[in-house]
Design a protein that fits this description.
The protein is an alpha+beta fold and 426 residues long. It is built from 17 helices and twelve strands. The strands form three sheets. A five-stranded antiparallel beta sheet has the order 1-3-5-4-2, with helices on both faces. A four-stranded mixed beta sheet has the order 6-12-11-10, with helices on both faces. It has a three-stranded antiparallel beta sheet with strand order 7-8-9. It is elongated.
C-alpha cells in the first residue's frame, strides 16, 4: 500500500475535489470522524467544511492547514469498505491525527480503487500537529498495516518487477503522476538531448509530453514546465502536472543545463547514426518499413506533421549511442523536407511493386519487426532488483513529489482565475 500525503491551504478545494467524485457516482463517503453528521447521510461541500471551520479559525500561524492523504492498496488487493475504514483510522491514529476531524472518501473512477482522507493539520487550539519525518513514518505504518490486513507489500511489488521505471504511461491504470515521475526522473541520466523538441521526442516513447508555460508576474515574465500524459494517438488525456512536483531535475533550469551539456556531439557519433539511416533508406520502400528497419537496429524515429499532413520535423533516438538527434543535425540530406518528399514518393511507389535493394545475405523479414516497441535497453531498468537496496530511489518512487492532487490544484487555479476576473470587473 502506498500513502500520498499532501499539504495545502485550501480546505474547500480538497473537499470539493472529492465531493465532485461522489456527485458523479465515481466515489462515496465511507466515514466521518469527529464531524457533524446529517440525518439522511447526504452532504454538501459546505456541510463538510463546517466541521473544520473551528479549527481553521483557531489557527495561529500555520500556512498549510489542509491535510489530504490518499491510501492506495495494490490493484490486486480486495479491500472491503469496513476494512478501508479500519485501515484509515489506524493510519490516522499512528500519524498523530486520531483526534482530528476527517472524512474518508472512496474513489472508484479508475481500475485501482483507493481512498482519500481530508483533514486539517492544526488541532482545536490552533496549534500545528508535529509532522517530523512524516514520509518515513508513513511508510513504516503502511508496512505494518500491510501485514495486519494481508495486503500486497509495496516493496514486494517492486521486487516482483512490477514497478514503474521506464514503462510507457497507461492512463487507464491510474496514478498517472507516479508513472510520469518514474520516467522523467531518470531519462536525463541515460540520454543526451539538445532541446525541448528532442526531449519531447524521447518522452513520446513513454506517452508523455512537456510544454513551456509563460506567465506575467508583476510585469516580469516567468517560465515553467508542465507535463501531460498522452494516449495512443498522441492526444493529452489528463490535467497538467507542474515540473516542481517531480523535483528540480524535471524543471526548465536543470533541463536547459542538460541541453547545453548534450550539445557537443562528436562527428564519429553522428556517423554511426547516419550510416544506419542510410542503410534503411537503401533497403526500404516506404515510411513504415523505414521506421521498422531502424527500430530493429536500435533507433526510434519520431515524425512531426502539421494538420495538412506535411512533415516538418524528424528526430532520431539512437539507443546505441544514447543520443537524440534532429535530422538536420546529421546533415542536410536527413532534414525533414527531404524525408517529406522521399516518403511521399516511396509511399506512392509502394503500390507499383518496386523491389527494395537488398544486399546478399540480408533477410529483411528477420530484421523488421511488426510494430514499434521500446528498445531492449529499457528491460534491465525495469528490473526492480537493481534498485531495491537504494532507499533514496525507492523513497522517490513511492513518496516524493506526491503533493496535492493535480486535479485539485487545477480546480483551485480555476477558482483563483474566476476571483481575479470578478475583482477586475469591480
Amino acid at each position: 500500500m502506498i500513502a500520498k500525503i499532501g499539504h495545502g491551504s485550501k480546505m474547500y478545494g480538497a473537499l470539493r475535489y472529492n465531493h465532485i467524485k461522489v456527485l458523479q457516482n465515481k466515489g462515496e463517503i465511507l466515514y466521518l470522524h469527529n464531524m457533524f453528521e446529517s440525518s439522511d447521510g447526504n452532504y454538501t461541500t459546505g456541510q463538510l467544511l463546517s466541521s473544520f471551520l473551528p479549527y481553521l479559525a483557531a489557527n495561529k500561524k500555520t500556512e498549510k492547514t489542509t491535510l489530504h492523504i490518499s491510501l492506495n492498496p495494490d490493484p490486486n488487493d480486495r479491500v472491503s469498505d469496513q476494512e478501508y475504514i479500519r485501515i484509515a483510522r489506524e493510519y490516522m491514529d499512528k500519524m498523530g491525527y486520531g483526534e482530528q476531524p476527517y472524512v474518508i472518501f472512496k474513489h472508484n473512477d479508475i481500475d485501482r480503487t483507493h481512498i482519500h482522507i481530508v483533514s486539517t493539520s492544526v488541532d482545536k487550539n490552533g496549534n500545528k500537529i508535529p509532522d517530523s519525518f512524516e514520509k518515513r513514518r508513513s511508510m513504516e505504518i503502511c508496512r505494518t498495516l500491510e501485514k495486519k490486513y494481508g495486503l500486497i507489500p509495496a516493496n514486494e511489488k517492486l521486487a516482483s518487477g512490477e514497478q514503474l521505471v521506464f514503462s510507457p504511461v497507461d492512463y487507464a491504470k491510474g496514478d498517472v503522476k507516479s508513472q510520469i515521475a518514474a520516467v522523467i526522473r531518470y531519462l536525463p541520466e541515460y540520454y543526451h538531448f539538445q532541446n525541448l523538441g528532442g526531449y519531447n521526442a524521447l518522452l513520446s516513447l513513454f506517452n508523455i509530453t512537456a510544454e513551456v508555460i509563460k506567465k506575467d508576474y508583476n510585469g516580469e515574465i516567468k517560465e515553467g514546465l508542465m507535463y501531460f500524459a498522452l494516449n495512443a494517438d498522441g492526444n493529452k488525456v489528463c490535467n497538467p502536472f507542474k515540473a516542481s512536483l517531480f523535483g528540480k531535475q524535471a524543471g526548465l533550469t536543470a533541463l536547459r543545463s542538460h541541453f547545453e551539456k548534450s550539445g557537443n556531439v562528436t562527428p564519429e557519433t553522428k556517423t554511426k547514426t547516419s550510416q544506419i539511416i542510410s542503410q534503411a533508406l537503401n533497403l526500404t520502400t516506404n515510411e513504415r518499413d523505414f521506421k521498422n528497419y531502424l527500430i530493429s537496429h536500435g533507433i526510434n524515429t519520431v515524425l512531426r506533421r502539421n494538420e495538412q499532413g506535411r512533415l516538418y520535423g524528424i528526430t532520431f533516438i539512437d539507443h546505441n549511442t544514447r543520443q537524440v538527434l534532429n535530422g538536420s543535425h546529421l546533415g542536410k540530406q536527413y532534414s525533414a523536407n527531404v524525408f517529406h518528399e522521399l516518403f511521399s514518393d516511396k509511399n506512392n511507389n509502394e503500390n507499383r511493386n518496386i523491389e527494395p535493394k537488398v544486399p546478399e545475405n540480408n533477410d529483411l523479414s528477420n530484421t523488421i519487426p511488426i510494430k514499434e516497441e521500446l528498445h531492449p535497453f529499457f528491460e534491465f531498468l525495469m528490473n526492480a532488483g537493481n534498485i531495491i537496496g537504494h532507499w533514496d530511489i525507492l523513497n522517490s518512487l513511492l513518496l516524493n513529489g506526491l503533493a496535492e492532487d493535480p486535479e485539485e490544484q487545477m480546480f483551485e487555479f480555476n477558482m483563483k482565475k474566476k476571483k481575479k476576473r470578478g475583482q477586475n470587473r469591480n
